[in-house]
Design brief:
heterodimer; A: mainly alpha; MetI-like fold; disordered N terminus; B: mainly alpha; 73% helix; flat
Chain lengths: 326, 308
């Protein structure tokens, strides 16, 4: 069986950027007629919608800003975030240290900048892991059905039954409790793993129910009738069409993970001192809130802003992808 | 319906054992001396070690320990802490406070969230609508512990309107601000969920019919629209109560509430393994039962849903 026939069966293929290479992406834009010729898929439609939303552009700009900050912190500050000078302990914001200094005399501005790296890295890595694992298991469970579905769903339920923060504390305090000394990357890897372990069932459930709803759609049956293999059906037809809900979830999840990472660090079981992160900074500032509130204010502000931009992005993406909102 | 309930209950059993097994493994089977630091600044006496080893079957492989533990648990015996205080004692002492806090949080989020959602869902795109949308975005983005600290500092320390920490016995009045902090995220979610649901159903045929029949607007909204729109909201509130009751570790920590979350956190940091397992088992049970209840409620509320 040849490719063109399969492509005809599934309209949303145009959504994949890689597939529509035969026409330049801008070709459809100038005339309305041209854009009507080429059917847009679900994701293409969403992108068309997104481009007109100011909320999307604002949040995207903020996220870009934070990502640049995480990738190239030295663009923003020349100060070493771990350079401590006790003679400068707890000085308020000044021209010298914009956000003031903490109890060890470290520059808070530099630490807020460098803190973005750990926070965003952990959140993004954990989100990618969660979505990959959850979506894979979800597709298998939904597509296979029968006892495999039952088994995978129950395993998901077991992990879902653990209350999130509680489960994270139990796991992390066993492997990362006070007194253990691990390297920076080992701590981050551990936190990422814990977030993935506790969060994957949700994306699995989302994916599974979408697959169940799509599995018997006409174009899947048609592809099957044309003799397409299971692998081909899953990768070319099922996944592109089932991606939307899990994508929305993933965007919001990044924000949620940034805030969860901070909460775990605040509780003393997440990232720890050699790592600079917003959560670690807030944790060390909590007892000094009465005397130097700025120590809490700046990292908390950065944290809220980062979470807010991901939540806003998720909101924009959801509105674009959810046909009910149109 | 009866068969559905039965099936759900049967499904609950493997999940319950799987989750508790996982917790048990995490807490007990991780290598390390369980008696390290349990007896102060000196090593534990051989007699104590022998008693405890026998009590928790620490010589057996951990799956056997788990079976013993579960057998005890099913007869209502939660075991004892290393200081030989019954764990059920700790639970009985701390749980009422957590329940109070969860109730306050749920009431606040339901009252404010629903009101905001209904008002904005009926009048979309107005000033109020945008205000609610923006403020809910902020509430969703502010982590619980930041909100807790800021409110405690502003209202409790600076302005002196509230007690900065909750007093002994957790009187209701002291729990209002902690409850607000705990429920803030869900409150924002409830407002948005209600708004979307109301806005969607407003254009439904049955609403148009009700208006065409000449019913007063109050009745159309209050009876026809609300009852149909609140189904997803109520299920969310139910699930949320389940997770609220499984311990508000952070909120309880900030406001110094003697609740189950604080108890389990203390047990984790002092490596009281038996206590951790005991409390977490109870919490998981509550959580699973709440979820089951929500599923059943869903079927009862929405006659369109029929379980085979």
């Amino acid at each position: 069986m040849s490719d063109p026939t399969a492509a005809m069966v599934t309209a949303p293929q145009a959504a994949e950027p890689g597939v529509v290479t035969d026409t330049p992406p801008d070709a459809g834009r100038p005339g309305e007629g041209a854009s009507k010729d080429k059917p847009r898929g679900l994701l293409g439609d969403a992108w068309y919608d997104l481009r007109r939303k100011p909320l999307f552009w604002i949040s995207a700009a903020f996220i870009l800003f934070f990502v640049i900050m995480a990738a190239f912190p030295w663009l923003f500050t020349q100060t070493d975030p771990n350079f401590a000078e006790l003679s400068r302990s707890r000085q308020g914001p000044s021209a010298d240290a914009w956000f003031g200094t903490d109890i060890q005399g470290r520059d808070i501005y530099a630490r807020v900048i460098y803190g973005s790296r750990a926070s965003i890295l952990v959140a993004v890595a954990a989100t990618i892991g969660t979505v990959l694992i959850g979506a894979t298991v979800g597709v298998i469970a939904g597509f296979r059905g029968g006892w495999i579905d039952q088994l995978l769903s129950r395993i998901g339920d077991v992990f879902f039954g653990l209350p999130f923060v509680l489960g994270a504390i139990v796991i992390l305090s066993q492997f990362n409790g006070p007194g253990t000394h691990r390297g920076e990357w080992a701590i981050m890897g551990l936190v990422i793993a814990v977030l993935i372990i506790l969060a994957w069932p949700v994306s699995m459930r989302i994916m599974r129910s979408t697959v169940l709803a799509t599995k018997n759609a006409d174009y899947i049956l048609a592809a099957r009738a044309l003799g397409a293999s299971n692998t081909r059906i899953i990768f070319r037809h099922l996944i592109p069409n089932c991606l939307a809900p899990v994508l929305v979830y993933a965007t919001i999840l990044v924000g949620a993970f940034i805030s969860t990472e901070a909460a775990l660090s605040y509780l003393g079981v997440g990232l720890q001192t050699p790592v600079v992160s917003w959560g670690v900074m807030i944790a060390s500032a909590q007892n000094l809130i009465r005397v130097s509130p700025y120590m809490l204010l700046f990292p908390a502000g950065a944290l809220v802003l980062a979470v807010l931009s991901f939540v806003m992005l998720g909101e924009a993406v959801r509105e674009a992808l959810d046909p009910k909102m149109r | 319906m009866g068969r559905y309930v039965l099936r759900r209950l049967l499904q609950l059993i493997p999940v319950f054992f799987g989750t508790t097994l996982l917790i048990y493994w995490l807490v007990w089977a991780v290598p390390g001396d369980p008696f390290a630091g349990k007896c102060g600044e000196r090593p534990c006496s051989p007699g104590f070690i022998a008693t405890m080893t026998e009590k928790y079957h620490l010589d057996d492989p951990w799956p056997v320990q788990y079976v013993h533990y579960m057998a005890n648990l099913l007869t209502g015996d939660f075991g004892e802490t290393f200081g030989q205080r019954p764990i059920s004692d700790i639970i009985i002492q701390a749980y009422p406070n957590t329940l109070k806090l969860a109730t306050v949080a749920l009431t606040i989020e339901a009252l404010i969230g629903l009101t905001a959602g209904v008002v904005t869902g009926l009048r979309r795109n107005g000033f109020l609508d945008n205000l609610v949308l923006i403020s809910t975005l902020f509430l969703l983005a502010i982590p619980v512990f930041v909100l807790g600290f800021v409110l405690q500092f502003l209202l409790g320390v600076q302005l002196g309107i509230i007690e900065p920490t909750v007093r002994d016995g957790a009187p209701w009045a002291d729990l209002i601000v902690p409850g607000f902090v705990l429920g803030s995220g869900s409150m924002a979610y409830v407002a948005r969920l209600t708004r979307t649901s109301i806005a969607e159903n407003r254009r439904a045929d049955y609403v148009r019919t009700a208006i065409a029949k000449g019913l007063p607007m109050r009745r159309v909204v209050g009876v026809h629209l609300l009852r149909n729109s609140l189904i997803p909201v109520i299920t969310f509130l139910g699930t949320d109560l389940g997770s609220l009751m499984s311990g508000a570790i952070i909120t309880e920590g900030i406001f110094r509430i003697n609740g189950i979350g604080g108890a389990v956190y203390r047990a984790i940091t002092t490596k009281e393994s038996a206590t951790v397992v005991g409390i977490v088992v109870v919490l998981v049970m509550v959580y699973l039962l709440m979820n089951l209840l929500v599923d059943l409620l869903y079927a009862a509320l929405d006659p369109r849903i029929r379980y085979e």
